[in-house]
């Protein structure tokens, strides 16, 4: 690994006790030491693949093998086996900004106490490395710089950009990934300096979504987000520009040299806007089907529970444990994108649905939020929100804040009753769990891998489900056993008694079923 010679400020001798000094070299060393796994919390084989049916999907993803040392020259491409692509070697770039630095640790605080709510540069860069590996690249090195704000021209500053170019050349990297969103001018300036492709965090996340989207709606949503990101970043390439002048003015070429009146880049922009308009119409046409499914559940008075949370927090694993859904589980970020709905029952037999939604991430691209709005509306329409948090993550509180930031952009999502579930407790240490219990007093501790705490989770979900509103005490004729069955499935039965004229029920049911029960009783009373 190249030595990074960025100076780091040190605290004065009379300053209050702080977090131990974190030099950029130390941060980069810790980030690179964890390459090869999606996140530190999943290191050590936390996922065992025994509770899902995703073997074929994982095999298909692994089939797109990436080969180190493969170039794009024609003589190499002709010898490549089917479905092999070149393994990109990347260098990560991050900034240690003031708002990301950990707060001072109180005097006498426990060594394992939670850091400040803001996610620091180390955790952010580690997450970027996990995103790069999920996209199918190899992290070669990293560079981090302490600054008060990004440089408006080159993001890093001219001196550090030249140092980055030397690092890229030394390790043989062909891509630079920046932990932030670059403006078009910053991206061009960095590419001109380092001489290789430069992408930012948003482009990396969009690439992962494009790889993992499977359903027709998911593919359309991802393509729309990609086009929204690409539109302001189109570049003209000189010779591809069409002439806009004609006659003798057109460089003296005369008749036949008049251009179409639009440059190539303008034609591309117009085509992108037309494609975006078509995708929006297609996505809008898909919404009624999802709304119809939600409406049928509502008409049947079936409560719904939405599972949301940070990516790789274990939402799909938890869904498989609770419902035997068989959703694919993989130690990767954004492994599953398409929502899945499954049926579940409470201990007393009440039916409700569990919905697994797309995972969130810090600084989730706004284009994705807009494109996946119809999917995220599943959260706003739920009766209970199960917010899954990775308890073994270095900064779980920032994950909670990131998820709530995304939910705030969905009307009504923050109004849904929330149950925080701290997953992967088998990997978290006792001090961290004690601190989390203090900061999140209503949270439930579970482990989707071992099954610990699942009984408590089911009980808490059952408590939070909406209860039927109307109390009835009716005798239902034996000929209307269908109403008795619905009362058992959708209501809360207190007493069941079989009398001469029918089944006497004392129960809590919804208003519609209460009206049908009263009507059935009235019909049996008439001569």
Automatic annotation (TrEMBL):
Residues 303-469 form the Hflx-type G domain. PROSITE patterns: G_HFLX. It holds the Pfam family GTP-bdg_N. It is found in: Cytoplasm. InterPro entries: G_HFLX_dom (IPR030394), GTP-bd (IPR006073), GTP-bd_M (IPR032305), GTPase_HflX (IPR016496), GTPase_HflX_N (IPR025121), GTPase_HflX_N_sf (IPR042108), P-loop_NTPase (IPR027417). Residues 105-116 have a biased composition (Low complexity). Residues 1-26, 100-121 are annotated as: Disordered. GO terms for cellular component: cytoplasm. The keyword NADP does not apply. Monomer. Associates with the 50S ribosomal subunit. GTPase that associates with the 50S ribosomal subunit and may have a role during protein synthesis or ribosome biogenesis. Belongs to the TRAFAC class OBG-HflX-like GTPase superfamily. HflX GTPase family. This is GTPase HflX. It comes from Actinomyces slackii.
């Amino acid at each position: 690994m190249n030595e990074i010679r960025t100076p780091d400020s040190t605290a004065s001798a009379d300053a209050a006790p702080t977090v131990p000094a974190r030099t950029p070299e130390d941060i980069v060393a810790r980030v690179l030491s964890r390459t090869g796994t999606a996140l530190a919390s999943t290191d050590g084989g936390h996922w065992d693949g025994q509770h899902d049916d995703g073997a074929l999907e994982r095999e298909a993803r692994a089939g797109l093998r990436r080969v180190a040392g493969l170039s794009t020259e024609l003589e190499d491409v002709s010898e490549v086996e089917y479905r092999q692509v070149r393994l990109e070697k990347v260098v990560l770039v991050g900034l240690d900004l003031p708002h990301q630095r950990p707060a001072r640790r109180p005097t006498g605080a426990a060594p394992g106490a939670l850091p400040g709510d803001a996610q620091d540069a180390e955790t952010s860069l580690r997450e970027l490395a996990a995103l790069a590996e999920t996209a199918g690249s190899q992290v070669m090195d990293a560079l981090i710089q302490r600054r008060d704000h990004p440089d408006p021209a080159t993001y890093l500053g001219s001196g550090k950009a030249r140092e980055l170019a030397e690092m890229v050349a030394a390790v043989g990297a062909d891509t630079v990934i920046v932990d932030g969103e670059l403006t078009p001018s910053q991206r061009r300036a960095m590419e001109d300096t380092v001489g290789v492709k430069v992408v930012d965090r948003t482009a990396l996340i969009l690439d992962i979504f494009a790889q993992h989207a499977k359903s027709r709606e998911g593919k359309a949503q991802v393509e729309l987000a990609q086009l929204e990101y690409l539109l302001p970043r189109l570049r003209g390439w000189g010779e591809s520009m069409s002439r806009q002048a004609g006659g003798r003015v057109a460089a003296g070429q005369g008749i036949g040299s008049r251009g179409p009146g639009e440059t190539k880049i303008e034609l591309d922009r117009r085509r992108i806007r037309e494609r975006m308009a078509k995708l929006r119409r297609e996505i809008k046409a898909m919404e009624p089907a999802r709304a119809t499914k939600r409406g049928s559940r509502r008409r049947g008075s079936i409560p719904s529970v939405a599972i949301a949370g940070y990516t790789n927090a274990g939402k799909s694993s938890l869904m498989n444990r609770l419902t035997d859904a068989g959703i694919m589980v993989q130690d990767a970020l954004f492994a599953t994108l398409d929502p899945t709905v499954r049926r579940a029952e409470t201990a007393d037999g009440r039916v409700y649905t569990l919905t697994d939604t797309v995972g969130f991430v810090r600084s989730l691209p706004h284009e994705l939020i807009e494109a996946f709005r119809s999917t995220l509306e599943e959260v706003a329409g739920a009766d209970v929100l199960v917010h899954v948090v990775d308890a073994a993550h270095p900064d779980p509180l920032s994950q909670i804040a990131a998820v709530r930031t995304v939910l705030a952009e969905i009307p009504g999502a923050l109004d849904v009753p929330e149950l925080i579930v701290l997953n992967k407790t088998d990997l978290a240490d006792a001090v961290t769990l004690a601190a989390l219990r203090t900061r999140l007093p209503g949270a439930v501790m579970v482990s989707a891998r071992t099954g610990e705490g699942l009984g408590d989770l089911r009980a808490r979900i059952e408590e939070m489900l909406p209860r039927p509103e109307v109390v009835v005490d009716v005798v239902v004729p034996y000929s209307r056993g269908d109403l008795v069955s619905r009362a058992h499935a959708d209501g809360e039965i207190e007493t069941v008694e079989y009398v001469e004229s029918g089944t006497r029920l004392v129960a809590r049911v919804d208003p519609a079923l209460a009206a049908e029960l009263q009507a059935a009783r009235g019909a049996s009373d008439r001569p």
